[in-house]
Amino acid sequence: MQIYLPIAEIAVNILLLLSMGGAVGFLAGMFGVGGGFLITPLLIFTGVSPAVAVATGANQVVASSVSGALVHFRRGAVDISLGMVLLAGGIVGSVAGVFVFRQLRVLGYLDAVVSLSYVLFLGVVGGLMLVESVRTLVLRSRGRAPALRKPGQHGWMHGLPIKLRFKRSKIYVSIFPVLLLGGAIGFLAAIMGVGGGFIMVPAMIYLLRVPTNVVIGTSLFQIVFVAAFTTVLHAWANGTVDAVLAIFLMVGAVIGAQLGAQAGQKLKADELRALLALLVLAVGIRLAYDLVTRPDEIFSLSPVLT
Amino acid sequence: MIQRVLILALFATMFVSSSNGRAQAETLVAALGQESVAIESNFTGTSLTLFGAVIRDGRTVGRPQGYDLVVVVRGPREDIVVQRKGHFGVIWLNRDSLILNDVPSYYAVQSNRALSLISSEGQLQQRGIGLTALAFEPEREVQEAEMLAFNTALIRLRLSNGLFSESPSGVNFLTDSIFSSRIALPANIRVGEYKVALYLFRDSALLAEYELPFNVFKTGFEARVFNLATQRPLVYGLLAVLAGVFAGWAAGLFFRQT
Asked: Which of A:107-126 have CB within 8 Å of B?
């Protein structure tokens, strides 16, 4: 059954959209990630223009992070004040990102920049995940429990000025690295249509030394608001949010995410993590391949943007 | 449908015979199966049927060689950026671009035989009949070779997505004076006013012209979404976010209970 997407201006099969959302949501729920970094490339492969894929991806991230954020909020696992400082940075980053996005689009470089960013991030994230999971699998097969990395006591950033005490996280840290991290995530949300949890979570643990029990909740709290802000900004400045497309992806993704979360508790995660890493790498390689091979058609058409 | 054309033909005959002073011996009449096309959520393209007739006044002698008919459909005009990719290090990137002005968003030429057999190139060029007659206005000055490259690229891309077409067998003469044609409209057509122009030829000479419009518009849920997105983008963005919040919240609620 085909549906005409009013902003993307193409007709797509509804079942394809639902299953795409569902599959990504399932993986996302299983591994506790947002899944935005898979939705946007998949949309591009489907024939949606990268500009619409990114902005609609940001919209989809709102749905996929809200339920998780609510669960963590009820448990009290959200550091609101830390989240607010991250969010302040995130909003500035998002505004900058949407502005850059718009300029790139006018210049005709947006598609290539979006693809390149994805190649870079999927390559790094997929590569790290693969190394990590293979290491765990090898260690386990030798009968040893994988050792947790021990963070050092002090980082370089503890010397920076304007320190704030975040009670819930039990950290005393300068606001600059926090704002910078939030800003970077906001920028990525605008350029790539991702939540950015895959950068936010490790950065909070290893750089800011936030205790793990509040990391996910605080990260999700920031992602919900940054993704929401980015969606509105894209809709306003670029007109590239396809709400009809987003709704079908959301329905698939939120159902898939819940099923994935349940499945993730029963299944062995390490093998699956290796599989997800391979999938992430495969998507990255496909995008890289499209970038470096000579296209069948070197010309393309687009409406005039001012 | 045929009845409708015959009625039209009758009216036209009356009109022609009442205006005796006219030099033209042939007149064209035509009608479309529908005057408008609605793009709804399940729109995957459609086609319009055109029926028409050649009306002769009483004194015109029958033409042994018969008529040639060309139907040209033109969509609303728009400015288009044509981009050309080139090497940038190891990747392919849009390197050059050219804005072409007043490009018809849809252009279809249908005729009963090859255009080259119907009339002279000059005659066809003058009326913008045929893909080779399409020359677009570049926004900045470019070399002729460059202009040609971008011009042909635009036509090639539009041909491949069905927005441009040329068919030398797209017009059927049902009798020696009644004809029909099918206008294929793909899913990606622009909204706006379309013009169907009919040209009647015989022995390379243009005998008569006729023009009729039809309208393409978006309707239903899609139209409302599109209008909101373009006219009130801020409200639209907020609603899109609200839909996301609701979807996430509802899913969480539903799965917590089960």
From this structure: 108-109, 111-112, 116
